[in-house]
Structure formats: C-alpha cells, structure tokens
Please model this.
Amino acid sequence: MNASFLNSAASWRQYPADEGAEVAFAGRSNAGKSSTINAVLSRRGLARASKTPGRTQMLQFFSVGEQRRVVDLPGYGYAAAPLRVRQRWQGMMEEYFQRRRSLRGVFVVVDARRGLGELDRKMLEVCASADVPARLLMNKCDRLKRGALIRTLRDAERLLDGDGAVQAFSALRAVGIEEARAALLRWL
Ligand SMILES: Nc1nc2c(ncn2[C@@H]2O[C@H](COP(=O)(O)OP(=O)(O)O)[C@@H](O)[C@H]2O)c(=O)[nH]1
Ligand SMILES: [Mg+2]
Model:
C-alpha cells in the first residue's frame, strides 16, 4: 500500500474533504496506535511513534490511495491531561464519529497486557452508535505468554458479543499484520 502523510488537524475545517473512504485508528495513549499504523501500512516512521504519551491532540491523516485515507485519532486515557483537554478531546471525537460520512471502520488498538478498559469499551459504544464497524487489535502480544493471550482474546470476544472482531497483534514482532491489512482493504 502506497501511504503518505496528508496533514495534522485540530478541528473539522482542517480535515481533508469528507469524500471517498476513511479508516480510523483509535486507542489509549501508548497502546501502540502509531506503531500499528506504521506496521499495517509498512512504512516505518510514517505515523510518529512517540515515547511521550498523550501529547498529540490532533488527528493525523494519511493518504493510502485515491480518496482513501487512514487517520490516527488522538489517544485517550492519559491521566495527566487537564480536564479542558479531555473535554476538548471528547467534543472532537463526538463530532468526528457523528459527522464523518467517509468513515468505514475503526481499529481500536489495545495494550493486550492491560486488556479492554472502561475507555476502550466507551470507544466501542461510540462506534456502535455511529454504526461503524470496529476491530480490536490486541497489540503488544509479544509481551504475553500464550495462555494469557488466549484468555485476553477470549475476554474481549465475550465483551464484544459478536459486535466486532478481535485479533492478536504485535507491531514490534509483526504479528497479525496480514489479517489487519486484509480488514483495512475490505473497509476501504
Ligand atoms: N513490546 C511492544 N511494544 C510496543 C508494540 N507496539 C508499540 N510498542 C511500544 O509502545 C510505546 C507506545 O507506542 P506508540 O505507537 O507511540 O503508541 P501510541 O501512543 O498509541 O501512538 C512505544 O514505546 C512503542 O515502542 C508492540 O507490539 N510490542
Ligand atoms: Mg501515537
């Protein structure tokens, strides 16, 4: 897939035109969203993998073809973020999910060691109420033993209850890339 950076945007009027098809990556700060985007698009360093969690409060748009985009959504759950930053985040996300007509699917990136948290579940609810399909990427699976990974995947599947898909993923060890890429291509 030929991917290139389009722009960073902090508000609706800065977003690329709402045309064609778009797939978003959501997730807790530090879950590995940027690393995952780089791995799926096989472009090292395309989405900046920052060591400082919660710093980016912007949407990062990437072009992956004619009228086809991937977007790195600002991460959630950064405890040190001041209230006004969290409120702003919420407003941006509500607007994005309610209005973005080109949105075809959302990858929710989860740190498999932590499992699905409250905010991840809220994100899944947002997807469901916007009628956008979600796929959970249980990232950093390289850090889990086989038994723990199987339990984590099973727990996530139970929580989804057929409303979305779950897979193991590791941006670091290149686990689950083809599966995720296939889902991306189906959506786009
Ligand atoms: N062990 C391991 N670490 C990872 C993996 N993916 C990302 N990381 C690390 O997790 C941290 C956060 O990654 P980043 O992509 O910046 O997360 P983001 O805040 O969600 O965009 C970085 O230190 C990454 O190197 C993975 O699959 N395995
Ligand atoms: Mg990031």
Notes: The pocket of magnesium ion (ligand 2) is lined by residues 33-34, 50, 56 (CB under 6 Å). The beta strands are 4-9, 21-27, 59-65, 68-72, 103-111, 134-139, 165-168. The chain has one domain: 4-187.
